[in-house]
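A reminder from the course coordinator: this example appears on the midterm review sheet, so study it carefully.

Given structure:
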């Protein structure tokens, strides 16, 4: 179907309406002649059928003739030729006089290029009221000066409508603004006193389809001097291959939907000037006249100039207002981010002082969710509702930010708390964890005054399809809009995202700082180990000297010294020997921090029997053989076998030492995965917990940590066979270097159990 076929019917399927190709219409308005020229010879290939009215010859006569042959020799031929040769897709003006059959007529010509063709549109100069250019220019300049002075946007728009009305002489001039959904509202109006006002009325988006909005962006001015006039077909020498694109043609025919729509409003002449901001159609200045009314080209041009000035001024005023708001948002944001960065606990910084988190996006309520911990601030839904909302947003919405000003549209369960949360922003701080901030805005009940019931534009055809027909009535029709909050401003959403980036940055910085501290700690520990090693190593030599000299003195002067002198010398030797043992222990301990671990598969049964052999050799001859219970075969672990031998040896020798029993019961084993010890600790699945249990003197709970400290003994120096207080410190260091942990459980007087974790190969 050609677009023009459907032009005879204003009703149109809803799905066709938005993209209906109104620019491909092959009809023109009758107040001028449209001709299409071949681009090199300027031969007329198509012409509107009304040529005879304006040029006094039939269109058929003109088809195939070069346009320049018709040009009155007085017209500046060179200027027109230049205009034709250099024409662009945007129309340019040329005054043209055409002579046909001895009659000369004057026209305002508009020339532009479409693909390979040139379109020339002629509006008879005789039709035009004599418009003197200078007063018109003065009028536009005065209007501009007046408008520039007005700061208040409402006042400014009203003044702009007044100026356009005085330029055009049209009955009613309205300024119409589009919202985010392309519905429009009349925000300024000048009209005759007796006419009903459209000020404040809303128009559904379907009133101006997408393609028409797009055309307004390109052409700025649309002029239809008589909506009742019959439209004119184009005739061509040979049938056209493709429909002609009349997007930029001032004489472009009118969509019947548009005709019926305006006629239902009582409008016969129409002039629309588009207000474009940042390449977006911000609004329109619509001029209506009850009767047919032609406007000369110069007046329309003046309107276009004024329209562009209004758009520029309006944008700078809107931008200024917006900038002030953006600056205030930015200030809150900077202060906020700064205090979060300095805070130890970023959640506290988010919460205190309360209004800040709300002000950052102008919300009335917020929720901070850090895993299971949810904190509510200001006016929010109940905790259970917030939790459910979070579950939904985690499951449904993978984006880092989600926002709506009508929550119940996307989340029907939100209906019962729409009063506090019709507006919602969900900001995901982490992709892995349940870290989110939610902001809420309350429902704002709005009364929207529609220009006629917008639902009246929609009809259902016999086959069930939805048909749009222009409304018959534009009388005010009120609608109460519910479950809707004030929309989120792009700057508020940007602020929310910036906050997320700041939080992520701060958290990452903190993690970096922690990693840096750990690294330094590691270095320090290594330094400390090598210092301890060097110090203890160097101490050994003078100590050896003290022992040797003391022994020498005992041998040489033992006879001459009195009894107490000998006793003191012997104590000196003993103390030096003890110091030597302590230094050995310290050396061993510091070496542990420096040596590389030799990880290998280590069968603990083998390690245990080696330790038992060593311990057995240390026992006095009279003592019974060492008995250690092993309830089941021990596992094989991945460990340094020499060091694990050291651990077992220390634990077992303690179990033998710290008891009053001559034959203590000692057990070595490992725990089952279901053992409560395992469940209560964080232990990896491939690890095993080995224990050494005795029935000795036990340890008081208050010493459970102390006993692992260097040189810490709980008893007199020489009681329980003496000791250096290093054995458990070494065991702890070895296990921790294996990535495991060691702990003690004990009841004083009943016995002790040491547990340690190693990575297990097989059990
Ligand atoms: P040492 O045995 O050389 O004193 P350790 O570091 O091995 O040093 O032990 C530190 C202290 O922990 C011991 O002095 C002792 O008081 C206590 N201890 C260690 N093992 C046991 C045990 N099995 N039963 C009771 N007390 C123990």
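Designed residues:
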């Amino acid at each position: 179907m050609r677009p023009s076929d459907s032009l005879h019917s204003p009703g149109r399927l809803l799905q066709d309406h938005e993209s209906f190709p109104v620019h491909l219409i092959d009809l023109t308005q009758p107040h001028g002649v449209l001709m299409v020229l071949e681009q090199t010879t300027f031969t007329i290939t198509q012409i509107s059928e009304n040529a005879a009215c304006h040029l006094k010859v039939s269109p058929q006569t003109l088809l195939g003739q070069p346009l320049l042959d018709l040009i009155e020799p007085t017209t500046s031929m060179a200027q027109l030729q230049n205009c034709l040769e250099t024409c662009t897709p945007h129309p340019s003006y040329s005054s043209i006089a055409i002579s046909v059959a001895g009659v000369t007529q004057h026209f305002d010509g508009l020339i532009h290029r479409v693909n390979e063709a040139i379109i020339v549109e002629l509006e008879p100069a005789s039709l035009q009221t004599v418009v003197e250019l200078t007063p018109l220019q003065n009028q536009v300049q005065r209007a501009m000066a007046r408008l520039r002075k007005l700061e208040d946007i409402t006042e400014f728009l009203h003044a702009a409508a007044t100026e356009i009305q005085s330029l055009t002489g049209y009955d009613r001039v309205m300024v119409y603004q589009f919202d985010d959904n392309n519905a429009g509202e009349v925000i300024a109006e000048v009209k005759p006193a007796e006419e009903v006002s459209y000020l404040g009325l809303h128009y559904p988006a379907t009133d101006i389809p997408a393609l028409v909005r797009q055309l307004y962006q390109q052409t700025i001015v649309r002029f239809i001097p008589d909506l009742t006039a019959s439209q004119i077909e184009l005739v061509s020498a040979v049938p056209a291959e493709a429909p002609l694109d009349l997007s930029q043609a001032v004489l472009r025919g009118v969509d019947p939907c548009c005709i019926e729509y305006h006629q239902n409003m009582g409008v016969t002449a129409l002039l629309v000037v588009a207000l474009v901001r940042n390449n977006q159609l911000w609004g329109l200045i619509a001029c209506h006249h009850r009767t047919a009314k032609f406007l000369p080209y110069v007046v329309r041009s003046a309107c276009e100039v004024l329209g562009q000035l209004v758009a520029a001024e309006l944008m700078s005023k809107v931008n200024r207002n917006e900038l002030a708001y953006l600056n205030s948002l930015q200030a809150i944001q900077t202060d906020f981010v700064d205090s979060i960065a300095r805070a130890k606990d970023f959640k506290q910084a988010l919460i205190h002082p309360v209004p800040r988190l709300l002000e950052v996006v102008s919300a009335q309520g917020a929720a901070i969710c850090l895993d299971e911990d949810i904190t509510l601030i200001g006016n929010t839904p109940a905790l259970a509702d917030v939790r459910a909302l979070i579950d939904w947003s985690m499951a449904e919405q993978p984006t880092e930010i989600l926002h709506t000003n009508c929550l119940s549209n996307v989340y029907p369960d939100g209906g019962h708390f729409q009063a506090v949360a019709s507006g919602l922003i969900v900001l995901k701080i982490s992709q892995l964890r349940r870290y989110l901030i939610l902001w809420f805005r309350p429902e704002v009940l709005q009364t929207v005054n529609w220009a006629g019931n917008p639902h009246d534009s929609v009809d259902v055809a016999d086959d069930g399809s939805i048909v749009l027909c222009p409304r018959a009535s534009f009388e005010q029709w009120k609608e109460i809009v519910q479950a809707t909050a004030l929309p989120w401003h792009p700057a508020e959403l940007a602020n929310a995202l910036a906050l997320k980036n700041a939080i992520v940055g701060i958290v990452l910085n903190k993690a970096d700082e922690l990693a840096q501290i750990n690294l330094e700690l590691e270095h320090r520990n290594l330094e400390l180990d090598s210092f301890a090693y060097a110090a203890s190593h160097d101490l050994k030599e003078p100590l050896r000297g003290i022992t040797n000299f003391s022994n020498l003195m005992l041998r040489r002067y033992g006879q001459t010294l009195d009894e107490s002198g000998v006793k003191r010398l012997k104590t000196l030797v003993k103390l030096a020997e003890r110091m030597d043992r302590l230094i050995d222990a310290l050396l061993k301990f510091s070496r542990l921090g420096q040596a590389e671990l030799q990880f290998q598969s280590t069968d603990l049964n083998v390690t245990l029997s080696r330790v038992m052999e060593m311990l057995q050799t240390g026992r006095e001859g009279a003592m019974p053989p060492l008995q250690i219970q092993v309830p089941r075969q021990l596992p094989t672990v991945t460990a340094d076998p020499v060091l694990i031998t050291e651990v077992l040896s220390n634990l077992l020798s303690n179990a033998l030492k710290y008891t009053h029993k001559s034959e203590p019961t000692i057990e070595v084993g490992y725990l089952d995965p279901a053992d409560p010890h395992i469940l209560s600790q964080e232990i990896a699945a491939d690890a095993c917990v080995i224990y050494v249990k005795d029935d000795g003197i036990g340890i008081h709970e208050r010493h459970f940590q102390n006993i692992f400290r260097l040189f810490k003994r709980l008893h007199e120096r020489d009681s329980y066979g003496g000791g250096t207080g290093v054995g458990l410190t070494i065991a702890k260091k070895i296990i921790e270097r294996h990535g495991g942990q060691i702990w003690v459980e004990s009841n004083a007087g009943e016995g002790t159990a040491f547990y340690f974790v190693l990575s297990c190969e097989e059990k």
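The chain has a mean pLDDT of 85. The longest helix spans residues 490-557.
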